Amino acid sequence: MTGKAHEANETTKRTPVANRKFKDTVFRMLFSDKEALLSLYNAINNSHYTDSGALEIVTLENAIYMGMKNDLAFILDMNLYLYEHQSTMNPNIPLRDLFYIAAEYQKLVDKKSLYSSALQKIPNPHFIVFYNGSTPIDDCYTSRLSDAFYHATDNPSLELIVTTFNVNAGHNTELMSHCQILKEYSIYVAKVRSFAEQMPLDDAVQKAVTECIQENILADFLRKNQAEVIAMSIFEYDKVEEEKKLRKAEFDAGVEQGINLGQKQASTDTALRLLKTGKFDAKEIAELCNLPLEDVTALMK
Fold first, then answer.
1. Which among 244, 258, 269, 270 is placed 20 to 30 Å from 296, CA to CA?
2. What is the pTM of this model?
3. pLDDT for 62-78, tens place per residue?
4. Which tens digit of pLDDT belongs to each residue from 128-151?
5. Where are the alpha helices (DSSP H) in the chain?
């Protein structure tokens, strides 16, 4: 093997590429550490817990709905928290959380006791989303399961409320000031996004990781997990771009369908007016309005 070929081969070994098998996220990897997760919890709740041992992680590793799983679930002080990280807007998060929380409760309760006369107590649920996508949103907003109901009501029989925090760099500065890891994560994501506009994605992620280590941003975490972080970041970013393309295609198809429907409605209205004149038969109207004969016949009836 020549020197250049050997060097190229070694570079290939050192540089991770997008691994489509990755289902984890950098966010989940960061906050799977109990100390980091407790810091995030304290920042969200303005609390001061110090014993990470009191926090019990109960994430359902095998509970997957529509190919996606909750990032983190944990119990603290008899409250059950579901933390989800999102890079794209998804109005169906409350419904997804409903399925997930049901699976959590199934795991936590004694099924036999559900048929007894004693009340089965369960932890209070809380649903949080951390959003770092490129679509601008408010620093914080809530979404509700009832938003998806066909019939709006002031007092729905079933409700689930999700609070979403914008964790992009420059947003929720007070929250970031109370959780240094979240702040540094937002800086890392911003670097990846910025570099990806200037160079291939693989190079952008590699440069973001290298620069963060040099600037002591998630430095220990990135040194320890560099290969995994690079591969996951590439996968996450590619996934977001693919979802954007899918939504664009769906939008274009919807516009085209709307145009077609509009044209057909206009032809139908013209056919009705011609019918009312009594001067044209069905076949003539069908030809004039470019409509199927059976449609014109139906209008006549």
1. 258
2. 0.72
3. 655 445 567 899 999 99
4. 999 998 888 999 999 999 999 999
5. 3-14, 26-31, 34-45, 93-108, 173-178, 180-196, 201-214, 219-224, 226-277, 282-289, 293-300
